[in-house]
Amino acid sequence: MIRLRTIILVAILAISANGAESKAFAKKVIEAHKLSGESAKRVARLLTKSYGITRNIGTENPDTYHGPNNSYHPVTRAKCREKILDSHIIEQSAKNEKICQAPWMVPVPNADGEATVCIDQFEFPDIPCEYPVVWTASKTAHQICQAMGKRLCNAHEWEGACAGEVKSTDWYRFDISNENTRRATINQSREKVWAFQDNPKYKSRTDSKVICGVYNASDKDIIPDARAHIKSGSIAGLSKGCAPNKSAYKTCGTNTWPAGYKYECKSRQGVYDMHGNVAEVVNLPTNRHNFAKGSKTGYTERKGSFFVDRSGLKKRGGVARYPDDCRVRQPYEHKKLIRNDHAHSFYQEGFRCCKDIP
């Protein structure tokens, strides 16, 4: 088996790369997730040939924090490994791997305590202490999840993994035809809870700064040189020189934290970075026929990010700040069918995957 996997990896590394990510990164993902055969080949092809997707680091050297496209990550991957992996704060669970049939996933219970879905513990590539992949269109994210034997999460599954329990699909209120009214109705009656509130010392805390991967100038963990290259202001994490009206890809960078570094920013099930770090694409069903299942998907929704301040929306009847609690239904920005959404991506947008329990 080991020899077969080695042969597959050698074949994959010979693939020519036209995409933004490297063969070395594809190899890392394949090994971390124990992929083989066609699954490994497809994952490698998507990572190395999907135009633009990147972690904005450009090297597997764990001591490097300054990447291409004006990126200055707040902490190195080496420091993260020393802090949370070498100290065993985060450890892989053999029990969860057996239930989910995949590493670094956890089952999420329904109201009756039974679990029917598993979710990645970290933002893709779902590897602790790795920087998240960004600039990934929704269609590409779904294809990557599928290649790994998973799928995009439905909105209520992501919310449940954050809040501690998956609600019934009645929560979508398909009985309300107007989508804006539907969203407003859900938000008015939602349970307001943050993932980290499962920790008794944060039970009454509603601000994710410092606890989570929110770029904040007062955070003592940030490397001083990185701090010097990041703007301060209402929108956290923007690089100095960021000019999205010219070329966000080349000027704004992706100043993400290593996955799990903010280890207290986790849900009851042990799902990390659901507040802070990158926004995550999920599947938003608009009726009972477009829940994500196999190759079936509905529309895009984006959840959980350091990038929660959208003051400019106030001029268009929006809110001064996006709430980032677990069950909030976000405004329908860039709403598009996932199967057609191959163009929109951004420097603070990534994803994680879900999987039906066999």
SS field, number of helical segments: 10
- Proportion in helices: 25-40%
If strands are numbered along the chain, what order do they take across the biggest sheet? 3-4-9-5
**What is the end-to-end distance?**
23 Å
Strand content: 5-15%
Structure summarized in a few sentences:
By secondary structure, this protein is α+β, with helices and mostly antiparallel strands. Helix content is 26%, strand content 9%. α2 (23-32) packs antiparallel against α3 (37-49).
Q: What is the topology?
A:
Layout (H helix, E strand, L loop, with lengths): L1 H12 L9 H10 L4 H13 L16 E2 L3 E2 L4 H9 L8 H7 L4 E5 L5 E6 L17 H10 L3 E2 L2 H9 L15 H11 L34 H5 L15 H8 L27 E6 L14 E5 L45 E2 L2 E4 L2
Parallel strand pairs: 6-8
Antiparallel strand pairs: 1-2, 3-4, 4-9, 5-9, 6-7
Helix pairs in contact: 1-3, 2-3, 3-6
